[in-house]
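Why run this: before we spend reagent on co-expression, it is cheaper to look at a predicted model of the complex and decide which construct boundaries make sense. The entries below are exactly what would go into the expression plan.
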Amino acid sequence: MRRAPALALLLAIVPGCDDLQGFGGAAPALVTFDVVATGDPGADVVALRVAMIWGQQWLTEPICILPPDTAEAAAAISAGCRDPFGFVPARVAANADVILNEPTTISLFSLPAADVMVGDVTSRVAYGSFVLYDDRDASGTLELARPHRLGGREMGPPVEDQVDGADVIYGASFVSMTQADQRVAFREGGFSLAAAFYPRSGCGEPLPAFSIVAAGGFSVADAIAATARGELPAEDPASCSERTPAEAVVTIPVRPPAEVAEVGCEERRADSSIRYREPPVDAPDLTDRTAACAKVVDFGSGMAGGASQYIISGRATDRCKGLSHYVLRGCREDAACALPDWDITATPPAWWPCSP
Amino acid sequence: MRRISILLAVAATSVTEAAADGTLLTDDTWRYAEGGALVVDAGLAVAMPAALPTGLATGVGIGMAHGRGVVVGARASWVTTTESSTVWTVTHSDLRLRLTGGLERTAGRGTVGLRLGVGGTVVHETRLRNQGMRAGLMGADLENAAIALLPAADLELVVGVHVSGHWLLELGGGPTLEVLAGGAHAGFGAQLGVGWRP
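The model came back. Tokens follow.
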């Protein structure tokens, strides 16, 4: 019994160790990437940063890839359609400051959410791009922009009031499938070589978990030919690589902002569907826009009955390209619907320039 | 399991004795013995984790005490809990060791006492980085462990009720205090169990 008080005293005076952290302490990054930005964006840069952006599975609207009806339509499509093979952002995952031509690390502290992963839970993948930008609004992150589309009659206000962020994009590691790229891959489970989500046919599978994969890109002509054969366009195997994040250094060359601005443009619709609008009574403001009449796309089925649509691009100064679609008869989702939401073919607005 | 077996044996003995004259319960069924100065108890324990800001740890406890009126003894309990934040899943296992002293008063079948315990709490911590396995983390980046001994003290209100023979129902609980990282961490602990006073 003599030992008991001594033990109690010992227990009382031994200080608690500081090893316990509970929920505290620094959270280790789930992955860290090495990035180098090369080139010179000019003297007016405010704060150069790099963002890691997860990509969205996206399909362009049909009129953007079908042969145009007229030269005017071709001009409007050129002004209003983004690169159908381009990287489309879904979510900015991380940002880091960059010093040109010096290695920079950028870390992720959370995994990509299920909505940016393609596949099922036993086999899915997400791809991301590193985007070099000037953080001119000093928000610390890249603000994604959206195309500005015009409003319709009694269909809500136009989205002209949205203001593009001030950030300027100077480069990206993954701009388009038609260009050489280095991209982040996050793979869970197996990998389907037949998957058409930013495909790298001919290259190896992304490594499990995080990896940096690269490909040389394919031409538009090769993509069309491969699609006609029911295949994915092939990459040059010599241009492919799959490396762990620790092994790879991602290089982002500085480019003119006009060449890479689209990597910061998110899309409302990812399934190639179109929102049609009823033409307003007053003519839309076409200042700095390109507009043309074009046939409603029905892939030769005749369901559209040869109806016309009026397509209007965004302003040339907008950060993102987009088309607004007006039809005299139709529904919001389908210009060839059997029971139209509106039909003003008999009383088109005075400014309507197209045939019914 | 042993505790349950003992309880079942006690109950079976009582029922067998009662059944001898055709009745289920007799005056002898709940007859108890005062017993001596030693009491041993064990039971289920709940407590706030010693070094986590949230959660309710559960486990088991055991103790012994000696004396009438003025009581001294020793207690030990082990409780564990797992809690999560957005980054970590943390498991704490607390081994609470106390030397106790207190006062008790007998009232009929029952005893009511106030017990002060002084000693230490050994805390074992494991932290698992959430999403780490999916991200391919390994080693210390994925999971780490630590152990610490925290000076601690408890103050408990203890109630014991003689049930049958030498067996008691024991209930105790009250505030606890641990010294953690130079500061005091207050909590509470409680135990419900069975006592044996031979």
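Residues 186 and 210 of chain A are 5 Å apart (CA to CA). The longest helix of chain A spans residues 3-13. Bring this page to Monday's planning discussion.
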